[in-house]
Amino acid sequence: GSFGGSWCAAPRLLPNFRVVLYLGMVRLLVGLLGACASLHARPARAVRLRRDGGNRTVTFLRIQKTGGSTWGEVIMPKICAEAGDIYRPRICAGAVDSCDNGFHWDYEMAMNANATSPGPVVTWLRDPVERTLSEFFFIRSSPEGGIAARQDQWDYQNATFVRLVRDEPDDDKALDIYLHAWPQHPGFNRQVLYLAGFKGSGHAVRFRWRGGEQQQKEFLSAAKQHLADIQAFGFTECYVTSAAAMARVLGWDEASVKEMATNTHRRSLPRPTAAAGLRRHRGNAQDCSTGINRFCGVWRSFVDERTVEEIERLNWADMELHRFARRQFQERFGQACEDS
Question: Tens digit of pLDDT for each residue in 74-95?
Fold first, then answer.
């Protein structure tokens, strides 16, 4: 499991051993502690991954509404084909060139697959307010979203909740339902959930935040530790910068990846249209025309500050993970994630 005891735990020394054996065990203990420290240390800079010949498998830990459609279904298949890499997970319809990365995999699924065919693991993260609102409006306003949210891999497995969010005529009431009707739902702190791991080896695993803040703290701790196992990661809010950094680490053609990251968007929901019905929760999106709102064009510009603060509160663990990951990005890849 993801939360088992450390395999680096020191051995228990029994009394009445001879001095020589005792000293030998002390040396062994020192060696084990040194190995543990080495394993948990994070490099200041990411090292470009070398190829040892043959096809390398690149695994995508795909979290909902973090830019995974563009990366997994457009960029990754093309660049992997050019680089001679194999990508996973894959959905294929007939010919191999019709494959794309359409599954949402968490840490456990990615690592279980990686054990059979080792290679780099990559993922994308996103500002929690943006990700939460994107998931809400995707479920509510997109025909595809209504179908996706009912799939096992989206983890809700609660048709009543999805129907209430989707079918409520009033947009403000629908957002209230999403944020308050079901406090345990897996859309909250989803990035912590997926980086901590909970699915084991299958998609059809329902999840509920039943353990409250303590459960979320445990998952957050595991998610931070597991980020060290992700060879390349990026952020939706600095997509091109992240894609370029990931390309360098993976040994891909940086110019080609940057060009695709700049000009490709696989799935885009028109924000003004999706949020047009909000009244009580409505923000200052109109400031976009005057340049006042620095969040012009992003989801949070369409809701008020009170709603933003409530989403941050409900996703406090994701907020902490996001801050931590931003610092890690700069340390490991040598550059800041500057919002674009």
Answer: 899 899 999 999 988 765 554 4
Distance CA(291)–CA(272), nearest Å, equals 16
Here the CATH number for the domain that contains residue 181 is: 3.40.50
pLDDT digits (tens, 9 = 90+) for 224-279: 999 999 999 999 999 999 999 999 999 999 999 999 999 887 666 778 788 888 88
Give the whole-angstrom CA distance, residue 245 versus residue 225. 21
Nearest CA-CA partner of 189 in 213, 171, 169, 162: 213
| CA distances, 211 to each of 13, 56, 174, 215 (Å) | 36, 39, 25, 5
Contacts of 9 (CB under 8 A, 6+ apart): none
How many domains in the chain? 1
Domain presence at residue 116: yes
Global pTM reads 0.79
Angle between helix 76-83 and helix 254-263 axes, rounded to 10 deg: 160
Start-to-end C-alpha separation, the chain: 38
Q: What is the CA radius of gyration of the chain?
A: 22
Cα(171)–Cα(122) distance, integer angstroms: 35
| 7 inside domain | no
Its domain, for residue 85, covers 55-276+305-340
Contact 231, 121 (CB under 8 A): yes
Distance CA 315, CA 65 (A): 15
In a domain, 68, yes or no: yes
Assigned domain for 4 exists? no
For the chain, the maximum distance between any two Cα atoms, rounded to a whole number of angstroms, is 81
